[in-house]
Amino acid sequence: MRNILLAICGLGLATSAVLADPLADRVALMKSNGKAMGNLAPIVKGETGFDSELVMQALTQLAADAQQMDAAVLWPAGSDTGDTTSSPKIWQDMAGFQAAIDKFQADTAAAVAAAPADLDALKVQFGAVASNCGGCHETFRIKKG
What percent of the chain has pLDDT over 90? Predict the structure, then answer.
């Protein structure tokens, strides 16, 4: 009985993996990143006051999102079609793309570890994280419109 239950659970996991949609997953992840950066940008620009709780929530979200990024999983061969802004350069230079993801992961983890306590400290961490976004989008993203 236990073996049958394990087999059914395994089949369920395998089926959900087959049904995974890398395009939808990466779009959701990028929207989450955009929301987190959108929470930080007005603080960095001085448009809103420094809120350490909001800052840490946004940085923690960015770091968590970064850890979910895996070029082979979210940008597998064949996922370059459909409504995507992913550039063909991703599939032409998968190692370079993964290196950009690795840097983003390291910089977001460093930003969380630094736990910026004031605006000046946040500006340093934000700059490092944002440069990853801009650099990757410049190289590996097709601008819409």
Answer: 82
Identify the CA nearest to 34 among candidates 134, 143, 117, 105: 134
pTM of the full predicted structure?
A: 0.84
The CA-to-CA distance between both ends of the chain, in Å, stands at 57
Dihedral, CA of residue 56, residue 59, residue 60 and residue 65, to nearest 10: 160
Annotation: CATH topology of 21-140: Four Helix Bundle (Hemerythrin (Met), subunit A) (1.20.120)
- Radius of gyration for the chain, computed over Cα atoms and rounded to the nearest angstrom: 18
How far apart CA 48 and CA 100 sit, in angstroms, is 30
Helix (H) / strand (E) element for 130: namely helix 119-140
